[in-house]
Structure formats: C-alpha cells, structure tokens
Amino acid sequence: MVTLAAMTFPDLFATLAPRLHDLRGRLSANEPLAPLTWFRVGGPAQMLFSPADEADLAYFLSRLPRDIPVTVIGLGSNLIVRDGGVPGVVIRLGAKGFGEIVVEPGERLRVGAAVPDVKASRAAADAGIDGLAFYRGIPGGIGGALRMNAGAHGGETKDALLEARGVDRSGAIRVFGNAEMGFSYRHSEAPEDVIFTQALFQGRRGDPADIQAEMERITQAREASQPIRERTGGSTFKNPPGHKAWQLIDAAGCRGLVVGDAQVSEMHCNFLINRGAATAADIEALGEEVRRRVQTASGMLLQWEIKRIGLA
Hints:
The chain is an alpha+beta fold. The protein folds into 3 domains: 2-92, Uridine Diphospho-n-acetylenolpyruvylglucosamine Reductase, domain 2; 97-224, Uridine Diphospho-n-acetylenolpyruvylglucosamine Reductase, domain 3; 227-309, Uridine Diphospho-n-acetylenolpyruvylglucosamine Reductase, domain 1 (Alpha-Beta Complex). The chain has helices spanning 13-16, 54-63, 95-98, 117-126, 142-148, 157-160, 208-225, 245-251, 280-298, and strands at residues 2-3, 26-32, 44-50, 70-73, 79-81, 86-92, 101-104, 108-112, 129-130, 151-152, 155-156, 161-167, 173-177, 195-202, 204-205, 231-232, 258-259, 262-264, 272-274, 307-309. The strands form 6 sheets. The protein has a 5-stranded mixed β-sheet, with no helix packed on it. Strand 1 (2-3), helix 1 (13-16) and strand 2 form a beta-alpha-beta unit. Helix 4 (117-126) packs antiparallel against helix 7. The model is unreliable at 1-6 (pLDDT under 50).
C-alpha cells in the first residue's frame, strides 16, 4: 500500500512508485517520526517504509535507487530524531512481519527483530531457557540489541547470540554467526547496510520460577534507579573504561541541569528527559553541555550511546 502525506521534503513518490509495483508494505511520505520515539521529538521521514515481511524488505531494497539514503529505526527508545527530519527512506520493522518468537530444540529461541527485549526475556523464561533474563532491563528491540550489543545487569547480547539474520542494501539475505558480528562494548562490526530481521539465541536449561525471580529483581532495580516513566531515551552515554558515566556526570555538577525543556534526570544522571516541550535540539544541546562539563572536570570525553539521526 502506498500513501502520500503533506510534503515538507521533496517528493520521492514519483521516483519510487514505478519501481515498486509488487510492494506489500506501507510506504508513506513526510511521516512524523516523533510519535515513534520515546523522547517524542523530531521531524518527519522523507519516506517511511514498514515492510510486510523479510521478503518484502528484500524486494524494496533491491529496487531502491542507490543514491537514496536508508536509515533504520527500531522501537525508538535509544534515539534522537533531529528537528529537521530524516532525508531519504526510513525503515521501521513492525510486529506483524517481524514479531515472531519460536522456541526451538536445545534451549534455543528464534526472535524477530521487532520483538521488544522484555518480551523475548519473558518468552525464554516461560520456556525454561536461562541466559536471556538480562533483556528484561533493556528498553529496546532485538534489532537494536544486535546492532549495539545491548546489555544490562551482567549480560550482553554477545553472551547469548548464536546467529543473526538480515537483509543488505542490495536485497540479499545475510546470516552472521556470533564471531562474525564483531561484538564489543555497545558495538557491533556487522556491515552498516544490513537490516537485521531475526536472531537465534542459545540459552541453557533453567527453572522458570528461578528465571522469573531474576527478572523480577531486575525490574525492581530498574524501577528504583531509572526514570522509566519519563520521556527519555535510556542511558545517554557509554561508560568509559573503568568508570561509570553517571558518576562522572554527577561529579561535574550536571544532575538536574536544564537546557530548554530538556533536563538531566535527578534520579539517574545518565538519563536525559523531555519535560514536555523539549525539542530535539534542546536534548542534544543538553547532552553536549554535559560532555563539555565532564571533560572539563575529569579530562574524559563521554561518547554518545543514544543514536542521533537527521537534520538539525
């Protein structure tokens, strides 16, 4: 299905439509992205594509002109969309085509890229598969977890992943083993043009009650220490080796710091929050001011963990 919204970017519809007669997903012009992010800020996508399934995604990418940029977003929890919007095509995988969870023999779990991390952890617990409980503490989706080696509470994606499957810019299906992903702290070396569609995890046999208890512990710890009911993007900066980002931010006097209507959380100062009327520029400027103050106070330059996309 192809729809056309009010234009703010130049119209790509005439370029794309003749190439995509067999498209089954939804392609829309100048689609607002703010409602798709946890911060609730940012401009539109020049074109937003929600594929029907993996085959539809591969079809679309194989026919998309190479000079049109592609940006992938997930659940929008670890993302700032800048106020000028995102040129080219933004691709967002939906639950209908990428939300399946399948329990496989040998304590394995196959999970679609659009599945929220917490849902994957629950499915593993229900099946008595230990090793994925840490996902209960991560506010994102499996696709993003693969791209950034998401982790929390002593576990990381690299610890459980057997293989990842995706589609590259040419429309070819690619499969990567754990070693081929090149995982490191909050990073993967997988090709940037690959859009992950599913993951296969290897767990170990566990008692469902014990796994549920561990997940409850993670839930309580998160609720007690993080502003999860605010408009936020999760942890803003990566922890420098041997240090905690929040401690450096606190020591630099940034707890509660405000720019526009964006604020450093009083509860956990590695979280930025939109108090209600912040722009993407407010949030990013606040983050940069935090980086500046931390560098002045400690000599360390914090690296963004939150992804920032689009035009200022």
